[in-house]
Design goal:
The structure is a homodimer. Chain A is of the alpha/beta class and about 400 residues long. Chain A is built from twelve helices and 16 strands. A seven-stranded parallel sheet of chain A has the order 3-2-1-4-5-8-12, sandwiched between helices. Chain A has a three-stranded mixed sheet with strand order 9-11-13. In chain A, helix 10 packs across helix 12 (about 350-360).
């Protein structure tokens, strides 16, 4: 198949591109390097050094003999989006190219507006370009399990059958997202569902859980193929961050009681799920939702697992919760559709955590402890970011750079 | 109370401002005249001549002795929004200031993006300004019954109790909006609900039905106080349009079978509902939804009522449906919350239609028959607009003018 990976320079976009390339697909990568720009804005950096896209692509060709097409540009530029689709003529478009950090979206008004405009307009442009150029292109869109929030009933995969006053219908699952970022994904989902209805487009919305891990079978083939690894308070995801904290002797920072429970998955399963979605496309006119995670854990459980796996002493520190979310809640979410398509999950165990700790240990000299604390407060309309120990007020949105991967910070 | 009416120069915003003013409230009006700009873009005009805002405000003072504060500017300009809230210090903000036509949002990509960015960013700016300046300000937001679509179960007011696999929760009612405009209102609703949750804001979301009528007790006091009356294929709403068609001898244009059923209300009830929402505010932190309509009718029923009321012969013409919507469907929607607050509805009857026909007849010389046909096709990504008999391609979005009233075209 011909598969275009939008946001293909990011944490998940890059290893997804390599995985699909090695699996025999013709792969194109689109990025505007917004994710790299956020690092400049925040004064932080990936724990693992990452090469520039052009260098990565060169090394991949040397290592594998396989070529990746590259396109540099912004999805909010409709002309660019049309040009790329016309040139590459994909069978599937995998769309990671959104601002994907909840804390980043909650910094202040500018960052909230930037996140929603960037994500919603990029996806609208994509929908129009697909409808105009080739409505059979299958859009594989990265959503998030965070769209659902934490209802007191089971979470289904996108739709729920409701019987009400003696009548029954299958309706979109009600959404209770917890940040302006998560809201942007809900807006996208509604827009995509509508585009499938009126134009007969086909789309799979992957409501992904929190991803952990950094190495994949392809990225380990050469140091220049590594993908990024974020541990900071804005872009770092929970398990990755805990492993870095353990290695540098920092207490594991649990927000509140740690009862918050979320669906999670191994980075290698992300790649497998995306490929399964591409090779088993939605029908014309179909909008379908897969819940893309393999196991649920509470934040407290994850902290315990890292404490157990780490060959030394680790403290756990409970911080005042920066987010507005339930500390203790019911959580049970369906996730059978990808298993039905053949997904064989990598479940979280001591050896997974040991390999994450090893990655963190190899790069421990690059850790900036000041970047770890949560600096963005949900109840504030203008958080002050602290980087490298000194206060830096929230910058305005990065100009000309509007794209990042979806991996749910 | 001190009440700020955003979009206060529009079809409903203007009579709402007058109604609230006469009811004894201190009223401020905010507008950027985007609705007037759309007329230039489309080459159409209100059937009833409307004065400029400054003249209307002068005449209102002469007629009533009451002053309206005016603010000219754009909600997508956050500095302007903050300045107005700081200067006027409202108790309630009534927010009509959005692009409100479904066909307009479906013209092409630019109009879809404009509608969603304009509406979502304007509302985000407002939420941030309220949170920062005075979180006790009550936001009365105009939404639409079209957010719900036409589910096969009863529509409730914003939330629904769902029992699923033995557990129960009250969740946001699932949304199935039918245009990029309706989608923008769904996005707004989710954003507002979240802002109430994290910042303790208070908001009432008025999911309004289709409004008919043109005269209110205040607008009839002087010709210069008239509000606009749209009959064109893009901004005209169904009953208003039918009355104009009857008067000029044009067949009533029913889209498809005419089985599409919608909640509707008299323009005078809109004013009463908005006042009831303001004077009975939501609690701090509360996001509540009122379904703001009084009766449901199918399009075919409305056509029949106009045929019966018109003192002459009227044809009904069934057009190929331009929208993607169910022609025949179940429709039953709750609307008791405003009645519980004391709303006494003006129900639709022969005399209401007679008075609408009289308005149309007074201005029949101003009707442009070429403006009536539906020119925007939902299944097309780029509709060509026909105005005054000659094709005009869809313009790009109006610059610097981004605001209009919500009355559900």
């Amino acid at each position: 198949m011909r598969i275009l990976v939008l946001g293909g320079d990011g944490y998940l976009g890059w290893p997804t591109a390599l995985h699909l390339s090695r699996a025999g697909h013709e792969v194109g990568v689109v990025d505007n390097f917004a994710r790299r720009q956020y690092d400049y804005e925040m004064g932080v950096d990936s724990l693992v050094p990452v090469c520039q896209l052009q260098q990565r692509v060169r090394v991949w060709e040397e290592v594998s003999g396989l070529r990746l097409a590259t396109f540099v540009g912004d999805l909010t530029d409709a002309t660019f989006v049309s040009r790329v689709l016309r040139e590459f003529r994909p069978d599937s478009v995998v769309h990671f190219a959104e601002q994907r950090s909840a804390p980043y979206s909650m910094i202040d008004r500018q960052h909230a507006v930037y996140t929603q405009v960037n994500n919603v307009v990029g996806t609208l442009n994509l929908l129009y370009a697909i409808a105009e150029i080739d409505p059979t292109i299958h859009l594989v869109k990265l959503g998030t399990m965070g769209e659902y929030g934490t209802p007191n009933i089971d979470i289904e995969e996108g739709f729920i059958e409701i019987t009400h006053r003696g009548r029954t219908d299958v309706l979109p699952y009600p959404k209770q997202p917890g940040s302006f970022y998560h809201l942007s994904k809900v807006h996208d989902s509604h827009n995509i569902m509508f585009a499938c209805r009126i134009w007969g487009l086909r789309s799979t919305d992957l409501n992904q859980g929190i991803v952990y891990g950094q190495e994949t079978p392809e990225t380990v083939l050469h140091p220049d193929l590594a993908t990024r690894f974020d541990y900071d308070g804005v872009f770092g995801t929970v398990l990755n961050r805990f492993c870095v904290q353990a290695v540098v002797g920092h207490p594991l920072t649990v927000y509140g009681s740690g009862g918050q429970t979320r669906g999670m998955l191994d980075i290698r399963d992300t790649l497998a799920c995306v490929e399964l979605a591409c090779t088993n496309p939605a029908e014309p006119g179909e909008y379908r939702v897969f819940n893309q995670f393999t196991e649920s854990f509470s934040v407290g459980q994850l902290a315990e697992m890292v404490v157990d796996a780490f060959p030394g002493r680790v403290e756990v520190e409970h911080l005042e919760p920066p987010r507005v979310e339930k500390q203790e809640h019911y959580y049970r979410a369906a996730h059978t559709k990808l298993l039905d398509l053949g997904l064989v999950p990598h479940l979280l165990n001591q050896s997974t955590i040991a390999s994450l700790l090893a990655v963190a240990d190899r790069h421990r000299d690059r850790v900036d402890p000041a970047a770890i604390a949560p600096t963005v407060q949900w109840r504030s309309t203008a958080s002050t970011l602290f980087t490298a120990g000194s206060p830096v007020s929230a910058g305005s949105r990065p100009t000309g750079t509007r794209e990042a991967e979806t991996s749910e910070a």
